[in-house]
Design brief:
Elements: H1 3-6, E1 12-17, H2 23-35, E2 39-44, H3 48-51, H4 54-61, H5 79-86, E3 89-95, H6 97-105, H7 111-118, E4 122-127, H8 131-135, H9 137-148, E5 152-153, E6 157-160, E7 166-170, H10 174-185, E8 195-200, E9 205-206, E10 212-213, H11 220-231, E11 235-240, E12 252-255, H12 259-269, E13 275-278, E14 285-287, E15 306-308, H13 312-317, E16 326-333, H14 337-347, E17 352-357, E18 369-370, E19 373-376, E20 379-380, E21 387-388, H15 389-407
Parallel strand pairs: 1-2, 1-3, 3-4, 4-5, 8-11, 8-13, 11-12, 13-16, 16-17
Antiparallel strand pairs: 6-7, 9-10, 14-15, 17-19, 18-21, 19-20
The structure holds cytidine-5'-triphosphate (CTP).
């Protein structure tokens, strides 16, 4: 069991459920919190009970569910006050636009808002709503107010919504919410003082003003690494290519959509950072002569000459030891995973490489989960099962921080030592 997972053992957690179609995901959330060892109580707004029954939650928690702001618990105490005082953390998931407004305004007219308002516990809020509601200035203002209260508001995710539209507004995955709650109780701040630069997403190599060569990278792994590092106290620079996920708040974001732009940003950033995580899927080739004008249809076809792009991480690997950051690469391999990944580790001068198998029945690209193996110069370092990308990110940071500090011990931690020995 990880240190984070142990962090929930015996914790009293109240899950507040409001009236969104995503309320069914709160069942999974409650089950996962319970299996992580937490003692979970559930409070529901009246609208939430129209989507999922209190009985379903009671069956999972083996505890009464609070649905009424005036309700009494089995000892005839006012249930919402009892829970507000007992809770170590309150997780509101899903939180509707209406509930965010209530919480921001201090309005109390259901069991969930009553518990949050009456409690001193740490609060995590996972909103779910239509994209238009989420982006409305009133909602965004309420979110800012709630963050100002010290509440952790998890960004909703991009995807298909109950309205049938695609956009931002989906409830964060239960595993993401659990990881956020675990971190509240875990080793927050263990990456404090470290400056990390992370690349994420794919690159687009222009053919003409409207066409490009690209890849399917979603940016999820790099963004998960950035969020985890940020939450653990690192100063994070995210160099984002094309991504299908929202970049996290609280990081310095640079956009770099072509391999050339990404190279420039990475080369510029590397000397000022302690660790470089190259999670981006950089195109290996770009059209030799992108056309300034839109290429017209031609019945005889189109010959496109491609030229190799610079190998960015290998270039950083060549930097002098005093400015070269600790280097972590990623490799997706369809064959000979270990041989190819360790070959890249050596050839590119990396400290660690995170490898995963592609081309089988499971497609990690764009998925929320993955199975990875980390290799160092001495071979495979991990044997992890399939995990949500956010949990992989947490484990990777445990490993990376450990290795980094072993190579660059405490006195210089987080600051590049001019005398740091070359790693290769
Ligand atoms: N990488 C990079 N610059 C490139 C290509 C890749 O910095 N032009 C980085 C990736 O971000 C990743 C690592 O190198 O961290 C391995 O990427 P991968 O595409 O597996 O390596 P390639 O050398 O391109 O090998 P392959 O021929 O298998 O694509």
């Amino acid at each position: 069991m990880t240190e984070d997972a142990r962090a929930l053992t015996g914790r009293r957690i109240v899950v507040g459920v409001s009236g969104s179609i995503a309320a069914y995901k709160a069942l999974i959330l409650v089950r996962e919190l319970t299996s992580a060892g937490a003692v979970v109580d559930v409070a529901m707004t009246p609208a939430a009970t129209a989507f999922v029954t209190p009985l379903s939650f009671a069956a999972l928690t083996h505890r009464p569910v609070v649905t009424d702001v005036l309700g009494l618990d089995p000892d005839s105490q006012i249930a919402h006050v009892e829970l507000a005082e007992a809770a170590d953390a309150i997780v509101v998931a899903p939180a509707t636009a209406n509930l965010l407004a209530e919480l921001a305004a201090g309005l109390v007219d259901d069991a969930v808002s009553a518990i949050v308002c009456a409690s001193r516990a740490r609060v995590v809020i996972a909103p779910a709503m239509d994209a238009g509601m989420w982006t409305h200035p009133a909602t965004q203002r309420n979110v800012e107010t709630l963050r100002g209260f010290g509440y952790l508001v998890l960004e909703p995710e991009v995807g298909s919504l109950a309205s049938g539209l695609t956009g931002i507004g989906r409830l964060a995955e239960p595993a993401t919410i659990v990881a956020a709650v675990e971190r509240l109780f875990a080793r927050s701040g263990d990456l404090e003082g470290l400056r990390v630069v992370i690349t994420a997403g794919g690159t687009r190599e222009p053919i003409d003003p409207v066409r490009f060569i690209g890849n399917r990278s979603s940016g999820k792994m790099g963004v998960a690494m950035a969020e985890a590092a940020r939450d653990r106290g690192a100063a994070v620079t995210l160099i984002g290519g094309t991504m299908s996920v929202t970049p996290p708040r609280g990081v310095t974001l640079t956009e770099a959509t072509t391999a050339a732009a990404m190279r420039e940003s990475v080369i510029r950033a590397a000397p000022a950072h302690d660790i470089l995580i190259m999670a981006a899927a950089v195109a290996d080739f770009a059209p030799a002569r992108p056309s300034g004008r839109k290429i017209k249809r031609d019945a005889s076809g189109l010959d496109l000459r491609l030229v190799p792009n610079p190998d960015i991480i290998a270039e950083v690997g060549e930097m002098p030891a005093d400015i070269r950051p600790f280097l972590v690469g990623f490799a997706a391999e369809s064959d000979d995973l270990e041989a190819n990944a360790t070959g890249k580790l050596r050839d590119k001068g990396l400290d660690l490489i995170v490898a995963n198998q592609v081309g089988g029945p499971f497609d990690a690209i764009g998925s929320d989960d993955n199975t990875v193996t980390v290799f160092g110069v001495e071979g495979a370092l991990t044997d992890w099962p399939m995990l949500p990308k956010r949990q992989i990110a947490e484990r990777l940071w445990d490993l990376i921080a450990d290795r980094y500090r072993r190579d660059d011990p405490a006195p210089t931690r987080g600051r590049k030592a001019a005398t740091r020995a070359p790693r290769r």
